[in-house]
């Protein structure tokens, strides 16, 4: 647990200039990534349809983005469509029974996140930033508002994710989000990028049932 008092922070002029460059880089990186990963993503979609022919390939969910504006987040489906909606998987009993076998693999390897590259292209998300929450996660939303975190676009990965991911409590998650907000820079993003690569490859800090159904 990190001890930090949440106080509203306003981005500096230097940080605002960096974010403009960052968003342009996000677009180019996402475009190139989709070109490279297009075939693997099609294979994942085919496997999902073959293993669960009656289930949709993609999962779409309403999330809170920059300036608290709602947007639709897209992921490869990892849970059955019968799973409870609009709540974190850890909020209901027996969440394990809703996760498909292929879905569990997609979650632990983070392959289910790849469709979010399209949200990066559209400008709704960034490669790195606070993870987008469902509107029902009121505790974290309140803490993020107090800190001014919604000045940033949400990210596919973020500072809280590389510091515990599924194991981070709400209060700590918001504190990590504020810490990222206060220190957002090329150096910070580069550090998070490489930490993310390490965490994904080693499948670290994963606790099934702690994710949102995504």
Helix share, percent: 40-55%
The SS-based structural class is mainly alpha
The termini sit apart by 26 Å
Count the E strands: 4
Name the poorly predicted regions.
209-214
Proportion of beta-strand residues? 5-15%
Mean pLDDT: 86
Could you walk me through the main structural features you see in this protein, from its secondary elements to its overall organization?
This protein is mostly helical and 214 residues long. The chain has one domain. It contains six helices and four strands, in the order αββααβαβαα. It has a two-stranded antiparallel ribbon with strand order 1-2. Helix 4 (138-147) links the parallel strand 3 and strand 4 (155-157). Helix 4 packs parallel to helix 5. Residues 209-214 have low confidence and may be disordered.
Ordered list of secondary-structure elements with their pairings:
Layout: H1 13-51, E1 58-64, E2 70-76, H2 101-109, H3 117-121, E3 126-128, H4 138-147, E4 155-157, H5 170-183, H6 186-202
Parallel strand pairs: 3-4
Antiparallel strand pairs: 1-2
